[in-house]
Design brief:
The complex is a heterodimer of chains A (98) and B (394). Chain A has a single domain, classed as Ubiquitin-like (UB roll), CATH 3.10.20.30. Chain A contains three helices and five strands, in the order βαβαββαβ. In chain A, strand 3 and strand 4 form a beta hairpin. Chain A is globular, with a radius of gyration of 12 Å. The model of chain A has no long low-confidence stretch (mean pLDDT 93). Chain B is mainly beta. Chain B has a four-stranded antiparallel β-sheet, with no helix packed on it. A four-stranded antiparallel β-sheet of chain B has the order 9-10-11-12, with no helix packed on it. Chain B is 1% helix and 39% strand. The model of chain B has no long low-confidence stretch (mean pLDDT 94). The chains are: A alpha+beta (98), B mainly beta (394). At the A-B interface, helix 1 and helix 2 of A face strand 6 of B.
Chain lengths: 98, 394
């Protein structure tokens, strides 16, 4: 199972508490995790990435295993720790403002 | 017994204020959607418990919310818990998908508008400014969006399609954003002919369709705007708000960037009615529920100083359809008041006497139960108020 942590506003929107667990077919990538997330929680469509282009929204970031993966290809394989479920995939609302 | 419900959108959530017909004791519910900008909420005229809300965030984009119980519970259309369990599969989650129509059939090959530097810039969806439920079907609703376009949903907000004839009209490439962005903020449906819809865009002007949204024309003749190279140009005027009385749909009132205007031919021509206003800059304008020649504005000092003149918050009322105005001050702060009243933040109820309501960027919501003669604050310390809509419930 893939563990996903949403930012608070999106947890409220999706009506979930804490971490999510998703079944994701291999290869596990940013794109496949987000596909599974949006299929299970359709209200999240368009809030993390664009409906059509699938590009990440500018003020959303993806962290995993202490690394910022926001600029990685959506098709790149995620780290083993994410695939094995020992580390969560973090979706972050970027700090912006003063 | 009548009941009043005031829908208040703010920078940090939605609030619902309710009272009985006496309009003295108010119950405040909220914040709903805490932390999100709620640009607008509006109920269906035929089913007032059906309310649509525009929920937006710079981080997470646009959400449309819908309530069928008068604002007690909300769901993004198409994603109710029972929808998720549907045997035919998952809903597609498209209630917040506002994709500009680029199809050859209806979209026309129009993909750019004028940018601040004079170059052409692609249309980019940012948010929904205004939701206007149709007059006869609670599932039929229009959305005015930034970058300026008009969208329509006929399935209760589950999916949206653009009425692309507006953006595709000949003037589209000349539209340009104002300081607040290029937004379509006003949607007026003619109650005697729902195929006639007038809209207003900052900073492009006013436009009208007479065929339900297929074709549109600018309706800006008579507007005079010193801040554009040709002050009487066909488009480019910064219209802040328009209003009509349902009994006289051919009479439109407009608060422009500067100037209060009036049209008696559905926008084909306009005349200035600023009269004795101390300043004719402002944002909202509204019409008394029972007197079609009684109108309200909130004069603001100037385009660079968005607060009342001399720190005195004054609503101005004309009982003559313009030209002659009186200041309404009783109960409103008359010193050290430097709030603004935004374009969608004024509304009226239909009780007798007519109630008038407005919200400020300082978080106050004021109401008058005597058509503006005197005012009281319902709440004082909300986040900055973006919109106020009033429902009169029987």
């Amino acid at each position: 199972m893939i563990r996903v942590v949403l930012p608070p506003h999106l947890r409220t929107l999706a009506r979930v508490d804490g971490e999510l667990e998703l079944e994701v077919e291999t290869p596990v990538t940013q794109g496949s995790v987000l596909d599974a997330l949006e299929a299970k929680y359709p209200m999240l469509h368009g809030t993390i990435r664009d409906h059509v282009t699938k590009l990440r929204r500018p003020m959303v970031r993806f962290f995993a295993c202490g690394e910022d993966l926001s600029h990685e290809s959506p098709d790149a394989a995620l780290p083993d720790a994410i695939v094995k479920g020992s580390e969560p995939f973090l979706i972050i609302g970027a700090i912006a403002g003063g | 017994m009548n009941k009043i419900r005031v829908l208040v959108g703010t920078r940090k959530g939605a609030f619902i204020l309710t009272s009985d017909g006496a309009r003295k004791q108010w119950k405040v519910s909220g914040p709903h959607f805490p932390g999100w900008e709620i640009y607008h909420m509006k109920g269906s005229p035929v089913n007032p418990d059906r309310i649509y809300a525009s929920q937006t965030s710079a981080w997470f984009g646009q959400i449309i919310q819908c309530s069928d119980d008068g604002g007690k519970t909300w769901n993004p259309p198409g994603t109710k818990p029972e929808d998720l369990m549907a045997p035919e599969g998952m809903p597609k989650g498209e209630s917040n998908m506002f994709a500009y129509d680029a199809s050859p059939e209806t979209g026309k090959p129009l993909t750019t508008h004028q940018w601040y530097d004079g170059t052409q810039h692609p249309w980019e969806f940012k948010r929904v400014w205004h939701l206007e439920p149709s007059l006869d079907n609670p599932d039929h609703v229009y959305a005015g969006v930034e970058d300026a376009a008009l969208f329509e949903s006929k399935d209760g907000g589950k999916s949206w399609h653009e009425l692309a004839g507006l953006r595709g009209s000949d003037t589209g490439p000349k539209w340009q954003p104002g300081a607040g962005g290029m937004c379509l903020h006003t949607i007026l449906i003619d109650p005697s002919n729902p195929k006639r819809i007038s809209v207003a865009i900052s900073a492009a002007g006013a436009f009208r369709t007479d065929d339900g949204g297929n074709s549109w024309k600018p309706i800006n003749r008579g507007l005079h705007s010193q801040y554009i190279p040709n002050p009487t140009a066909e488009v480019g005027h910064c219209v802040h708000r328009m209003a009509l009385h349902p009994s006289r749909p051919n009479t439109l009132f407009m608060q422009k960037h500067w100037d209060v205007m009036r049209s008696d031919d559905a926008g084909d021509s306009w005349n200035e009615v600023s009269g004795n206003l101390p300043t004719d800059f402002g944002f909202p304008i509204d019409v008394h529920a029972h007197e079609p020649e009684t109108i309200y504005v909130v004069p603001i000092k100037s385009d660079s100083e968005h607060y009342p003149l001399s720190g005195r918050l004054r609503v101005y009322r004309s009982r003559t359809g313009g030209h002659e105005w009186e200041a309404l001050t009783k109960g409103l702060p008359q010193r050290n008041c430097y709030v603004n009243v935004l374009r969608d933040a004024m509304s009226v109820d239909s009780l007798e006497p007519c109630g008038v309501y407005f919200g400020t960027t300082g978080g106050q919501v004021y109401s008058s139960t005597d058509a503006g003669d005197s005012w009281k604050s319902i709440v004082r310390d909300l986040p900055a108020v973006l919109s106020v809509e009033v429902q009169t419930l029987s």
